[in-house]
Design goal:
heterodimer; A: 118 residues; mainly alpha; 62% helix; B: 279 residues; alpha/beta; eight-stranded mixed sheet; two-stranded antiparallel ribbon; 9 helices; 20% strand; globular
Chain lengths: 118, 279
């Protein structure tokens, strides 16, 4: 019997279907590991989104830096993080956004041993 | 095979070393934990390290997702992950040894993808730095990268990883030349980067895993992917890569040292070093 993608509340489980859904978004974010692409992106973000064929929702999420929405639209955290790095935002900053905390609160929660779920 | 090392591969651990922050109050406890293991490994230098790791959207994009892949190149460039390459030496390969591993593992019915070109990211270089913090001009050993898909569901099962490790151990032992080999299992421990559960740390699970990886790897191999994701977080499933290392070691091992620290950025960082007593 084949497995089905686990559903764990509060957790994105990135599978092949998510990969298809988020492909344009993840390709765009992944391209930002190259300095030349970062410059092109920063020069005209909307046009850059156009060349990667983002859906209107994905484009809006990128332009508004709506990190939660990017994850809902098929983003993989390892790709989305490359966009955060363009903005010089840390993974702890993103952790705060995902959990409704400030970066400092999130960092403090980790220092205190991390967040516990049952 | 002389030893096996399991260690987390958090980017910020590499950044702390690259920027001289290892004595900062935030990082000092983590790096102090590494010191005794490093001293022991420096006295037991391998010729080759097989490093089991995952790429993080740097060399491998998601147009192709190999479950298991092995590098067979002469050398591996250090990837630029978006903030410039880490200031560490280019990684020297062991192509003939790699070729032997590919043949042996495919003969054992593990159908690996083969990389003739591969840039290696923090998933591989941070564990090398955990082993050897000051390599100078070159790393102290050659490296064979063994990549595992842990990013896209369905990942290989934990049981399959332990079985691959056993086949890897046999492949290493059957290499005709006299070669001292170390095996690194990287990634983990509990962490989740995104979603409402971001920041999850399950110290009970991590402690259980650190104990069972030595005494009862079968128990860890029996856990489902859903259990890893639920208990250790969506990125905590990286722990399946430790099972490949564990499977590669012989039946008689000795725990040399272990360290566990929370936090390293958004994760729990674990390290355990085993000496292989069966040759």
């Amino acid at each position: 019997m084949s497995s089905t993608t686990p559903r764990v509340p509060g957790t994105y489980v990135f599978d092949a279907a998510e990969n298809r859904r988020g492909r344009a978004l993840n390709r765009l974010c992944g391209s930002l590991k190259d300095a030349e692409n970062r410059e092109r992106f920063k020069a005209d973000e909307a046009a850059y989104c156009e060349t990667y064929g983002l859906t209107a929702q994905q484009r809006d999420a990128v332009l508004r830096r709506d990190w939660n929405r990017m994850m809902e639209l098929g983003g993989s955290i390892f790709y989305v993080f490359k966009l955060a790095m363009v903005d010089q935002k840390s993974m702890q900053y993103l952790g705060g956004v995902f959990t409704g905390m400030t970066t400092e609160e999130f960092a403090q929660a980790l220092k205190a041993g991390g967040r516990n779920f049952g | 095979m002389i030893w096996g090392l399991a260690t987390s591969h958090v980017p910020s651990i590499g950044a702390a070393m690259d920027h001289g922050k290892t004595q900062d109050p935030y990082w000092k406890p983590l790096f102090d934990g590494y010191t005794p293991a490093r001293e022991w490994m420096a006295r037991h230098t391998p010729d080759v390290a097989v490093v089991i790791y995952n790429d993080h959207a740097n060399a491998v994009d998601m147009s192709v997702t190999p479950a298991f892949a092995l590098g067979t190149a002469e050398s591996y460039r250090v990837a630029d992950e978006g903030w410039g390459s880490r200031p560490v030496p280019t990684v020297t390969g062991a192509p003939e040894f790699s070729d032997h591993l590919v043949k042996s593992l495919i003969d054992a019915s593990f159908d690996l993808t083969v990389y003739q070109e591969l840039d290696v990211d923090h998933g591989l270089t941070v564990p090398l730095s955990v082993y050897c913090p000051d390599p100078g001009e070159r790393w102290p050993c050659a490296v064979v990268p063994l990549l595992v898909n842990v990013i896209q569901y369905p990942q290989p099962t934990a049981a399959r990883c332990l079985a691959l490790g056993r086949a890897l151990g046999e492949a290493i032992r059957s290499f005709p030349e006299d070669l001292k080999v170390a095996v690194f299992g990287t990634g983990g421990m509990s962490h989740q980067l995104a979603g409402a559960r971001a920041g999850l740390i399950n110290q009970d699970f991590d402690r259980m895993f650190l104990d069972a990886i030595e005494h009862d790897p079968e128990k860890l191999a029996a856990l489902t992917r859903e259990e890893y994701i639920r208990e250790a977080g969506s990125e905590g499933i990286e722990l399946i890569m430790w099972l490949i290392m564990r499977g590669a070691l012989g039946p008689r091992i000795r725990r040399v040292y272990e360290a566990y620290h929370v936090p390293a950025s958004n994760t729990a960082a674990g390290m355990v070093l085993f000496e292989n007593l069966s040759r």
